[in-house]
Amino acid sequence: MAQKLRVAALLISTAMVAPGAAFAQSPASVPAEAPSAAPATDVSETVDPNEIIVSARRRDERLLDAPVAITAVGGETLQNYNVTRVTDLATLVPSLITSKAASGSSASIFLRGVGSTALSAGFDQSVSFVVDGLPMSRGREISLPQYDIQRVEVLKGPQALFFGKNTTGGLISIVTNSPTDRFEGGVKAGYGFEGKEKYAEAFVSGPLSDTLRARIAGRYSDSDGSFTNTAAATYPTPIPGQVRTRNSKYRGFAESYGARATVDWDPSESFNLQFKGGFSQVNDGGPTDIVERICGGGRTVPATANGIPPSPNADCRINGRSDSSAIPIQVAQTNYRYARDGRLYADFASQYGIMTGTIKSDPFDVTSITGYYRFKQTDLNNVSGEAYPSTFTQLAEFTQYSQELRFQSHFDGPFNMLFGGFYAHGKFDFNTDAYIFPVPLDPLNNTYVTFKRDNGFSTDSMSLFGEATLNVSDQLELAGGARYSLESRDSFQRSLPGHIAFAGAFPGGLELKDRYRESNISPQATIRFKPEPDTTFYAAYKQGFKAGGFNISQVLTPAATVAAGRYKSETAEGGEVGVRTLKLDRRLSLNATIYRYIYSDLQVQFFDPIAVSLIAGNAGKLRTQGIEADFNYRVPGLTGLSLRGAAAYNDAKYQDYIGQCYPGQTIVQGCNLQKVGAAFTAQDYDGRTPPKAPRFAGRAGFTWDVPVGSSGWSVRAVSDVSYTSKFNFTDALRPDSVQKSYTKIDASLALRGPDDRWSISLIGRNLTNKLVVAAANDIPFTGGTGTGTAGPATLADMSAFVDNPREIYVEVGLKF
What we know:
The chain is mainly beta. The chain has one domain: Maltoporin, Chain A. Helices cover 4% and strands 53% of the residues. It is built from 5 helices and 47 strands. It is globular, with a radius of gyration of 26 Å.
């Protein structure tokens, strides 16, 4: 305990607590861009190369001037630590908790304790993505490999006005590199020792003519996996003649590749047209390949499931060891959609294209963003280890077309405006087959599968937005605007014939349809005061909105109804105040933000391991409030040395919320509300901290570029220590599902040749090898009985999704 307090004190004393926050890995970690022509842009004509440029208000401006709570991470920072996935990014941003998940959105993304459960495929994410101006809100974007990135901006709190679709919890904006005015290229390759990962990246960029530029970039990676698979080579099943085989030697294996092409055309001084298009492919063992077991109620031996004893190869510890087995080949290849040969897997493929056109004219600049985005994922998952084959397959296929039109004025006077419209059409198919009871072959339907279900929706999102800006003086700016959103969604669920033994519980031919329509107006107002060019004070009032809909992930039984599957929209309201400043001859940057937001009807979902059902609903209210800050200091007298720190204190609490009991929760333990029959079904969440909401998180580190001789060689040393306090990782706040506080250390050392033409680097991430559980669900049939009674009751075992383990890379790079 004393050690944890010392770590926390160190981070607080070195960091000044955090969010507005550019916590750059080095002073120039986010390269300055050419500012846009809009007069509202605050980038001066003499931009300091050490300053960070962001586009959080859809205009290029110094982070110092942007009245938004934001953490900006530059491309150089990402390269220093070989950050190529969104889950890698979480360590760099205090209060960001991310992980993959098995079902629904296949992603768990929480910021300041606000996020969307991974269980529901129907939810839009409370924390969404924008890639080069293209909004993505399904959550599976967490699988996209990241490469050739200029910067990542993590915007915190409601984001209604500037990025296409409205969002409530925050937004991760990824900006990739664009073509350059001169020819350049680069290649790098590396090896990760822990996961036996081989990877390579390359790019080529330059002019094709006086008005045409192009860039091509790509990445390939292949990893054996860092986690141990303890499963036996073969394992008997309850069905004679069927065996399970080890899924793979290691867990966490993956092969991924992707490419992106960008063409930038300036047919005239007033017109620019840019096209970005790319594809990605990720093939791995599926999200359950990184699952480990937590035994319920502190048990040290895994529970029996439906009378089947646990595997002797399973344990109850988060230690990088777990049993992962394929299902019997007979089951997989007998009318079990997407099961292939029975080995656990996930294949994710995505494509996108973005056409951005900009016309500079008087008095409005006009920007058009036309987007196409598609992904398809099939997978086979097992959440219960090798002893009990509780498996399910999924097809998740989504296609989206979008169009945004934006007008930015540049009047001569103090008044300017931004307005426009956004439209997106999406279609989502989400099909599931589940094999959760080991039974002999059904000769009638020729399957072992317990139930089959086709689900999906089509959606249309339209919005109009506008903001007016008044520069009262050179020091004072007032801004106000709103987004009007109109959301529609037509959802369906349809059951197909499964095993005849379960026709009563899961009959084929059932169908539910839901039609959802809703509109919303989300206003926003900001005051910015600059008493001097390098100091900004701001205050903002914001609202946010996320559409409701229908739970397409619920189990379809004769008792299922449309009303039970509906959930309401989620809204956010609140504000923040912040300060940003440069001091000590512009060597020290300081940023701090205080915020408070109320989330009403927060969309939540729970898994019932007894009914094997996903239950969607809305929490009453969630209040988040806190303070965040960061600093960056270029040490005088020591050329190339910079110190940095960032930290976040977040006080998140449920209010006015009566919700689901966790399975196995007794009356004495608080499951004492909303009695149905002989048992209670609900508990009071009022005053309790929501899941994935650590009270404190921080990060502190340094970068030191040291010249070697006079020949242009240099050594770069980088290191950061991050700390996160404890948090609960289950939706129903099980008392035995708490991730203890943890500390991670990252470091890298690079030798660079003249003009950075070549480099060799040694990179270490999570050197303390802290295995963090970011999400978990109850394992079916391992407990959960006695809920809402006086007992006795048992808690189910949990399948826990474990964060990235330690990795050490060696990397060589060449630029030309």
